[in-house]
Amino acid sequence: MASQSSDNSQYPIYLGIWTNWSRGQVLGCTLTLERQEANLLIALTAFFVAFVSTRFWRIVCFAFHRHYATSDKRDVVYHQRQAILRNSYSAESGAQLLLQLIWTTRSSQSRFYLILLVLVASICIAAFTVAGGLSSQISTAVGTEVLINSQNCGYLDQGKLGNVSGGADLGLVLDGDVAEKVDAAATYAQQCYANSTAGTLDCGRYNSRALKSITQTDAPCPFKEELCRSSSANLRIDSGFIDSHEDLGLNARIEDRALIRYVLHCAPINTQNYTSQINTSIGTLTAYHYGTSMAPLGPVDYVWSAESVQAQYASAFALDATGPLSHYQLSTLFVIVQDERVNTHFSNFQPIESMSRKDADISISFLSSNGVIYSLASDDQWYRVSPSPVDFPMANANESETIPVYLPLEPASPLGCIQQYQFCYGDTQHCGPLASLSDAIDGAASFFNSTANDSKIIDDGTAGAGLFRYVLSVFKNLEYPALYAIPDTLGAASLTSRKNLFDSIQGQLGSNQWQMDVTYWWNIYMASLQQSFLNVAYVSPQASSVLRLRSSFSSAFARNLCNNQKIRSTAHASFSVFGLLFTFVIGFLITLISYLLEPVSGLLYRRWGFKSYAHLEWASQTTLQLQRLAHEELGSGTWSNGTKEIPTTEVGDLLVSLDISNPDHPVLRLPHKDDHSLADSQTIQGGSEEYSRADQYHANKSPNPERFRSEIRLSAASEEPQLPYRGLALTSSGYQWVDTMSSSRRVFDEIYSDSISMYNPQEYDDLEVGALLEAPMLDDWDNATTNFGDQQHM
After folding, report:
1. Which of 389, 380, 381 lies closest to 407, judged by CA?
2. Do the strands 658-659 and 667-668 form a parallel or antiparallel pair, or are they unpaired?
3. Any residues with CB less than 8 A from the CB of 456 and at least 6 apart, and which?
4. Using CA of residue 629, residue 633, residue 638, residue 641, what is the dihedral sign?
5. Exposure class string for 302-324: b at 16+ Cβ within 10 A, else e
6. Per the UniProt record, which residue ranges are transmembrane (predicted)?
7. Please, are residues 534 and 565 in contact by the beta-carbon 8 Å criterion?
8. Distance (Å, rounded) from C-alpha 389 to C-alpha 369?
9. Which residues neighbour 641 within 8 Å (Cβ) at sequence distance 6 or greater?
10. 8 CB-side CA count, 13 A
């Protein structure tokens, strides 16, 4: 099964089975479904677990029932317990009945066994309740991780930049694409990196909500110490090792993962002794001498120039001035270091010696207030607000009506930063140097079983080289906006101080406002990194202008990674295939065993008589068999299938109903004499005995002591008065009617003299074991013998 679906993030999602290497090859086997199908599977799994719990309880009941089964006489608690075990089909109902039985019994020994069973039932309930809850973890443990169904996978190819016949300059088109990416990353960083619940953006889109970092706010100067305004209050942010799999969602084995490290180190820069006034066609400007740069008329010894503070605020202080509101002006210059030297072809300037770094790329950002008025003083080292206020004329007021405001100390304030990169293959033991981007790539190439020339991968025929090529397409092929592009693209919007900016008036600034601004840049940069890996794997077919700049990977290993980009989607759910198989296979086995126990027990009993009593007790204690036993004992109905699930009667048999004359103790109604159509007047001769038709019915049908008592006859069998007795005998075929003659007088005498109707079979060897004798209810023996004698001489 393999298909695709689209969710609200506009990424097509792979539907089917795939391996999530976060959980290993076995546990990581994952099934992705759309949410509707996933909910159905979750519900089915929960129902299946609940069903299995009932079958497991049947196994427990069978085991305990067989263990306790005995043919010895036991009290009522034993029989009630056995009946509960036989007929409770869930641990809950079993526990409830057992608790009620505990409440009514007085035997401490019986209670012990009952409590044991309640404990077992409780364990079953708890275990399967937890199992039912954990069944949803088959999905939630895996989470919402899904694979993008890759389309147009590739990288932005610098070789395709430039004019194309009949089209616009694709480089300019790309600038617009970069701006769009930076803006999207800024939105994500603002809502998702700030741990804010405000906003409607889906912060669960990426494999990690936010990339973690280590921030040091008291870092040393990243340049020569004399260049920084502070030697110990600077900012250094270290990403640590970003895992391409865990953090960026590039699904791969542990040994086939890349670790990426990025370090940003910034400090406000001194301007004293690094500025001068220059005259230009637009007036006098302040030049900043941090290196040499190429101007339209040739190289110059400064990197930036800005209008004076007075010029920037001239319109703001003019009473008759009208125009747009003022905003900060922010510009960033950068230096690319390659082979530990400045690459002048790609750099904006050649830095001075005190700013040079061989192991890092460099950038410098100039902040000009550009007419923004500060309502309060601030000691922030980058905003550089004057501690002394000036009078500011109110709009639409006389000149004498002013308010105190604060202005910047300098036309532009520089902030210098260095950026360092490091790449590792598999683990931190196989890492290149922490250096500029180009040198970090060149230094790490050998660890990826690859070679590089001018930061371009030459050999990508191995898994490591393919991975390296894929990862570097983000950094080296214009897919990933550089840090300097963030303030350049967003301008004043990249400053967190804008939150307190209203109508060109800046509210209170923090003493570390510049550090908050740079941290925001960092968050945008990290969000861009997360987004860029998705941009490699998928580009919408509608983005035709961007597609013209893209090329596919030549390496099969890199192309394979295109189909292994993970994101998170709430419109889908992923299940552990191992968890599903484990749940359903174990559940199926439990269910199968529960249904096989009784047939196997029956087979063992029929062939070898194995545990015959335990088997027959189990078979005869079903609800319907207990009903049969109750009716058959009263002679109600002609029954068959005495050991099967459903006992039956003869066609047309009518069973007795309840006798509710005592509402507190209803019993089955005893049959009456006219329950049958047999005529009592007809007799059958049998030896020396004489039976009525009703007696013959009792001899062939179910025994009925009450009826027999009313129908027993006296007959002459010898010279001495003897009385035939009809009794119940427990034989291998069940209870049957039996007669005795040889010792009937002796039995008669003893029964009546002792006023008993039950006898000990060991005392009467001529009666079958278990017989219940029924004697005629006569007032005295003399009358019985007189009548007997009269009948004998007749």
Report:
1. 389
2. antiparallel
3. 476
4. positive
5. bbbbbbebeebbeebbeeeeeee
6. 40-64, 112-134, 575-597
7. yes
8. 16
9. 647, 648
10. 10
Distance of alpha carbon 710 from alpha carbon 695, whole angstroms: 10
DSSP state of 710: H
Spatial distance between the Cα atoms of 221 and 265, rounded to a whole number of angstroms: 8
DSSP helix/strand/coil, 155: strand
Residue located via tokens 């949803």: 136
Pick from 52, 15, 524: nearest CA to 262: 524
What does the pLDDT read at residue 220?
A: 97
Give me the amino acid identity at 442: D
Look-up of token digits 């597609």: 547
State pLDDT tens for residues 332-381: 999 999 999 999 888 999 999 999 999 999 999 999 999 999 999 999 99
| Closest listed residue to residue 601, CA positions, set 38, 11, 59, 46 | 59
Instruction: Point out the least confidently predicted range of 12-26, 65-79, 159-173, 675-689.
Output: 675-689
Largest Cα–Cα distance of the chain, in whole Å?
A: 164
Site of tokens 């089955």: 668
Read off the pLDDT of residues 454-465 as tens digits, 9 standing for 90 and up: 545 555 578 888
- C-beta separation of 336 from 347 below 8 A: yes
Sign of CA dihedral 493, 498, 501, 505: negative
Model confidence over 398-447: pLDDT tens digits?
A: 555 788 999 999 999 999 999 999 999 999 999 999 999 999 999 999 99
Quote the strand ranges of 341-446, DSSP E: 341-342, 349-351, 361-368, 373-374, 390-393, 402-405, 413-425
Spatial distance between the Cα atoms of 418 and 289, rounded to a whole number of angstroms = 18
Distance CA(740)–CA(774), nearest Å, equals 11
Task: Classify burial at 630, counting beta carbons within 10 Å of its beta carbon; exposed 0-12, middle 13-18, buried 19 or more.
Answer: middle
User: Residue 171 burial (CB < 10 Å; 0-12/13-18/19+)?
Assistant: middle
Strand partners, 335: 362
Helix axes 513-537, 170-192, angle to 10 degrees: 120
Q: Chain-wide mean pLDDT for the chain?
A: 79
Q: Nearest 5°: phi and psi at 59?
A: -65, -45
Q: Are strands 505-506 and 234-238 parallel, antiparallel or unpaired?
A: unpaired
Cβ atoms of 583 and 135 closer than 8 Å = yes
Residue 198, pLDDT > 70, answer: no
Report the distance separating Cα 597 and Cα 237, nearest Å. 67
Strand 373-374 versus strand 505-506 pairing type: parallel
3-state helix, strand, coil in the chain (%, to 5): 40, 25, 40
HEC string of 601-655 equals HHHHHHHHCCCHHHHHHHHHCCHHHHHHHHHHHCCCCCEECCCCCCCEECCCCCC
CA 429 – CA 447 distance, rounded (Å): 10
Q: Between vectors from CA 187 to CA 239 and to CA 32, what angle results, nearest 5°? A: 75
| Average pLDDT estimate for 89-105 | 87
Q: From 377, 348, 345, select the one nearest 362 (Cα to Cα).
A: 348
Residue 575 has pLDDT above 70, yes or no: yes
Q: What is the mean pLDDT of residues 526-543?
A: 86
Top mean pLDDT of 240-254, 550-564, 567-581 is at 240-254
Q: Which residue from 237, 203, 224 is spatially nearest to 530, judged by alpha carbons?
A: 203
Helix (H, G, I), strand (E, B) or coil at 292: strand
735, containing H or E segment: strand 734-740
The single residue listed with the structure tokens 């007929």 is 87
Q: Is 355 helix (H, G, I), strand (E, B) or coil?
A: helix
CB–CB of 533/438 below 8 Å? no
- Cα separation, 560 vs 549, in Å, equals 21
